[in-house]
Structure formats: C-alpha cells, structure tokens
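Could you join me in thinking about how sequence relates to backbone shape in a protein? Would you write everything just below, so we can both look at the same thing?
***
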Amino acid sequence: MSASYRSADAIAHGTTRVLWRWRSLVKVAIALWLFSVVGDRLLGPTATNAVIWLGIFAVLLHPATRRRVGGWWKVQRLRQRLERAFQRIGDEPFATRPAEVVGFSESVLGDALDVRLRPGTSVTELERSVEHLAAYFGVREVRVQRHAEDASRARLLLVRQSAFKGLAVQWPLEGLTSWRFDVPLPVGIDEEGAEAECMLVGHHLLVGGEPGAGKSNALSLVIAAAALDPRVRLHLLDGKLVELAAWSPCAASFVGPSLDDAIALTDELRMRMDERYSRLLDAGRRKVEPNDPDGLDLVVCDELALYLSNGDKKACTRFAEGFRDLVARGRAAGVILVAGTQKPSVDIVPSSIRDLFGYRWAMRCATREASDTILGSGWAGLGYSAADIDAGTRGAGLLLHEGGTPIRLRAYHLDDDGLAAVVGRAARIRHALPGGGGTR
C-alpha cells in the first residue's frame, strides 16, 4: 500500500469520525441547506433567508423552545464528550462502541446522562469504567444505574458534589409533645433535598450497617415517634443493654442480652397476636387499626445478630422461629418489627427473615455483598450499594420500600439532649394514662 493511499485513507477515516461525532449538527445543516435550495426556487432567496432568520429569532425569544434547543445542544455536547472519553481512556469495548447519550437532566448532585448501549456491550462492562470516567470528567464519582426494564439502557450520574456535606439536620419532630404513628414518619433528607418518609403501620423495617454508620440513631427516630403516640406499646430488645436503655421509661418491655428473656417476650407477643386474630375473626375483620382498643405493638430489636447466633444453638433457633413468626404474621395483628444489625451477612440475617421486611435501610456497609444482604440480592449490581457511601458521612444510607427503588438519604439527627427531652415528654404522657406505661 502506497504512502499516498494510506494518507488518503487516514484523512477519510478522520473525516468520517468527525462527521459522526457531529452527526446531529450535520443533520441540521443538511436540513437547512435543503430548505434553502427548495425555498430559493419556491420563494426566492430573500424570502427564504427571512424565514430562516425569523425561525432563529422565534427560537431565541420563546422560553420553552429556547430551553428545548438548549437541552438538545447540551445532549449533543455530552454525547461528544462521552465518546471522546471512551476513546481517550481506551476501555474496551466502549473505545470502539461508545455508549450514546439519548437524554440529559440536572440535579443538585451534577449531570445525569441517559445512555443507550451499543450491541456487544453491557452495563456490567460499563461499571468497570466508572473510575476512568470520573477522572476524565473531573467529578467526584460516576454512578451507573441499570434501566429497570431495558438492559440496553442505563443512567450515568456525574456526581460533582456531595448532597450530604455539612452537619446532619436535626429531627423536625424533636420539639413535638405528641405524634400519630399511623402517618408517614420523616426520617431524613434525600439527595434532591426532599424529605424521606417511612409508613411503618402495616410494614416492618430492617436497618443494617457497619459500626458507627448511624444505625442506632435511625432506630431512635422510630422509637421516638412511637413513644410520642400513647396508643403504641414499646417492646425493646437491646443486645448491648445500653443503646436503647434511655427509652426504658417509655417501654412496656425491656430486654437486655438475655436470650431466655428475648424468647419469653416473643412467646408472649405471639400469644397476644393469636388472641387478636381470634377477635378479628369473631368481628369479621382482617386487621387491627391504630385506634382499636388493642392498639399497636412496636418491637425494636437492636443487635439482632446477637439473638440469632450468639448462645445455645437450640435457644437461638427457637428465638429465630418466634421472631420470624412475628415478622410474617404480625402486620395485620398490629405488631410492627424494627430490627438493627451491625453484621449484615446471609448467615446472620437469612433471606427468609429479611424478605419479610417491607422497608430496608442500609447504612454504610463494608462490602457490596453486605449491602445486598440488607436491600436484597442484585441491587448493588444495579448501582445501589451502601459500600459506596462515604465513611465520614454518618447517617447516610439507602432506603428501600417493597416494590420501589432505593433512595439515597441522610437520616435526621436526634442528639442526646433532644432524645432526653422526648423521653421525658413521652414518659409523662404514658404514665398519666390508666395503668401507666412504664417498663415491666
């Protein structure tokens, strides 16, 4: 092959790549040229130019049209930058078959690119390029979220700043004297700045994460809301004895690390649950309502792993069976389970128990596998992993509601002074009721 032929081939190849990169603008240019040619014959050059310029001014003057054109231009620029990024970093197969940007949106975190993958590429391969892409774009991190229904589509989030920087936000219910537990409970702020809520009546909540991630604070938010509603009886199981001890003046039951006491409590609650179902059957009803005379029972178990694995094997098995029965049948009987664990592994929290929790809240975890143990298998592969949370951001996590998609949020903060104030108010309310409301 001659040198002149190779040079011509290189020029042709380079020109083709440039035209392909700017293909959207080339299409617009061709459309304008065709309109100009046809317009010159039908309207004349002057009228054709006037129409073109009037169209340009209309686009510039009309806000909605201007936004659409601006969004289209942004997509073209991002498409070019993404293709150039794949070529520069040389990650195969995207260096030769780059993902195509088909949509764009902005958030408080940065730019979100909706991309279409070309044949022969996959989201799994795209995830391996995130560190290189983050370095190329000069952003904090790049997240990949798989499309729920189309494996050829994904979302690239170019995170430019942390949504949770600064001090944690104090819990907005801290100063209230009462609360209805059967309304959505505010638990934190999501990445868009909106309030994140949990509706726990009729659902259970599993909270997991490594030590220091903010699990105990999350449990305290739930207990505080329930304590401010005297219709809710509190039953606390505290594997460390000291994490939930502050709430004992508001609790109907308080159990420390004793496995025998924990089994006795679950047996008592199961008996009460069976009695309620008998009364519901006699009344022709299907579930207990918050205003029923039976009220609600909230069972909060901190350090679930201790009761499931530490101690006599038969006793642990008996507790696990009782606990699972409460989670499986408790909702309609007005028994709500909230459990926390610092060891989110399959051998500690089996899927037979985890899958019965409607809400799952994964604080920072050491591994993607640990995150999936809380949220459910597969979420880390879809771009939702609590292992990616900054270790210095206490209270940040992923909250999943059954049938939904995990949301990233930072939990509200209830400090020691605020906790003590809530305990004092709740205890006074409960002890003023007939029969009192203290620990037994």
Summary: Residues 63-89 form the longest helix (27 residues). The mean pLDDT is 84. Residues 146 and 203 are 27 Å apart (CA to CA). The radius of gyration is 29 Å.
